[in-house]
Amino acid sequence: MMTTxxxxxxxxxxxxxxxxxxESVLKAVDDISFQINQGELVGIVGxxxxxxxxTSLSLMRLIESPGEIVSGEINxxxxxxxKCSEKEMEHIRGNxxxxxxxxxxxxxxxxxxxxxxxxxxxxxxxxxxKEAAYKRSIExxxxxxxxxPEEVYRSFPHTLSGGMxxxxxxxxxxxxxxxxxxxxxxTTALDVSIQAQVLKLIKELAQSVNxxxxxxTHDLGVIAEMVDRVLVxxxxxxxxxxxxxxxxxxxxxxxxxxxxxxxxxxxxxxxxLYSIKGHVPRPEQMPKGCKFHPRCEFAMDICRKxxxxxxxxxxxxxxxxxxxxxxx
Length: 328
Prior knowledge:
Elements: E1 8-20, E2 25-37, E3 41-45, H1 52-59, E4 67-76, E5 79-80, H2 86-95, E6 97-100, H3 104-107, H4 114-125, H5 130-143, H6 149-153, H7 162-174, E7 180-184, H8 192-209, E8 212-217, H9 220-226, E9 229-234, E10 237-243, H10 244-249, H11 254-262, H12 301-305, E11 311-312, E12 318-319
Parallel strand pairs: 3-8, 3-9, 6-7, 7-8
Antiparallel strand pairs: 1-2, 1-4, 4-5, 9-10, 10-12, 11-12
């Protein structure tokens, strides 16, 4: 599944997004770098508070006050998004860069029909007639496997199930044939069986039209099924990167190992379920040194005093841990 021959589509360099309060500066995303290639499926995984969603909103330039993208570069399709005007960003968001949010009911306009919302998105970004937009909308509803598309076109969002609404959101996101689709916990509010259907749909559509996908999730099971490559985040930083097979077979960072041990195999008794001790610290309470050391069973003195760099182990693997410093 690794696709190193593809051209880079997105290259993020030393991105920092901070939130300012009267008491402190909250470093939600703290100097992260990564890239996504054309047509590649990449996952960002981590517990709540790791910085995943702030990363996705930063890429879309949707950070609101008191948040601010402090520094870094977001090169997308040969253009630095941090240097674009808001008008340019509106064009890019509608055409080349799209996002599916967690909760479809709050993302869709409750007073407009599904069809109007899809059609208006198409007509806003493409010079087509109402009739052409209607035909394209019906095609999209069929593409995301919605039954009775003409009826759904005339429906209001609240009359549809959660799974159907999320399919509508995917249709809207794909309406202008984006180059990169960001999916932020796209199945959080759905039943397990519907989750599987929606995720399968995203993967199939991405592969059929060669759209790159950045999937944000806390669920390693979803990561295993969906992506080529994984970024593990903790405390606003990337602590490990690897292709999906290597990550599951040979995880390097103690945090990644803990996440994998926390997964519940079918044969395991729930009473014996492993969990990483403690919790992700609040941004204003980040410890010195390695952000993970208070929860790490391998912590050494240096972990408490100095933060490790992200070390490249080989062409495909990176890890931020003092246990691997000698391999730098």
